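Exercise 7 asks you to align residues with tokens for two separate proteins.
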Amino acid sequence: MGYPPVAFAAQDDIIAALTAAGATEPGAGITQRQLGLRRWKHSHTDALGHLLELGVVVRGPGERLHLVEPQARRLIAGRTGFRPWNLA
């Protein structure tokens, strides 16, 4: 059984916010509050927990979050079936 579409949307919100903030390096993380998602709901809290569990998002010093890009790419490719590296 998979996750409902709202969970995927919440994961995408978090991944997009971390990418936009430049939090893709271990030293360049941002806090959960700095993510600035306008509608932080239970779905976002659950999605963040799931992304942390999968290793897509990692907590660094000072509770700062950063995105692990290779893991994020694998997550999105596995979810959509889109694998751009097969196009070459």
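Second protein for Exercise 7:
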Amino acid sequence: MNISVNPKSVDANLAQTVLPSMHNPVHFRRCEEKAQAKRDSQTPSQVSDGINVKDSTDSEDESFSSSCINNMVCSLQVKKKPRAWMFGADMLKDFEEDPKLCLNAVCALQRQQISAAKSNVGFPSGVLGHRDVLSIRALGEYLMEGDPQHRLRKSVSEVEQQRPDVLSECLNLAIIHYERLFAIYRKEEDPFFGPQ
């Protein structure tokens, strides 16, 4: 059985699903109508060859244009749901692109260490080396700043200003322990760790 699909209709349907307001020119038309009404309300002495020669400043026009543009941008924005990681490679790719995710990854590993210590179970042997355990603990404490739920409290910009080396350390730890982090994600063991 062979099914043929018209790529143009698929693209159009996808675009309408993802960006429905883009194909609905209501916002554009409203802005154009408001701009035209404003131009029509000016007397001929205020307009010379399409240029406004009114004595007042252009701040009114700029604020109007700015609000029109803001309305159009807002209408085009789509709330993006975080995509699910199907494979560890998806997560690794996101680590490379998102420093905040790497910070969250270290916090997730630290939360795992904390819960393992409380339950006296510990990590399975060989999962974390002694050096990594110490690094994760130190970085986790720095990133969580004593948060009672052990959530990330530092922003990427704060870390860049205070301790820029932490970003690369977190990336390295996230990459080294991506299999453990992917298991944490797949088993939903950590409510604060996942795609953003």
